[in-house]
Amino acid sequence: MSFGVVVLACTAVWHALAVWHFTLFPARTLARATTERPVNVVATELFRFLGTINAAFVVLAGAAIF
User: Do 47 and 26 meet the contact criterion of CB atoms below 8 Å apart?
Assistant: First the structure.
């Protein structure tokens, strides 16, 4: 494996974990990152949006590997 493939694979894993936290559990992730209670609904939806952006990065890194 070349260094570039390793970097792209690590990038895909990193962003896949971000998709997991931002898309599937945005309120929990936001609650761990802030002290605001109750968790803001608009901020939760922003985290979901960030999760979809990270999903695009996973696809892009995967496509670059192949």
Answer: yes
pLDDT tens-place string over residues 13-64? 999 999 999 999 999 999 999 999 999 999 999 999 999 999 999 999 999 9
Residue 44 to residue 19: CA distance in whole angstroms: 13
Length of the chain: 66
Q: Quick one: how many helices (H) and strands (E) in the chain?
A: 3, 0
- What is the DSSP track for 49-62? HHHHHHHHHHHHHH
Torsion angle defined by CA atoms of residues 54, 58, 63 and 66, in that order, rounded to the nearest 10 degrees: 160
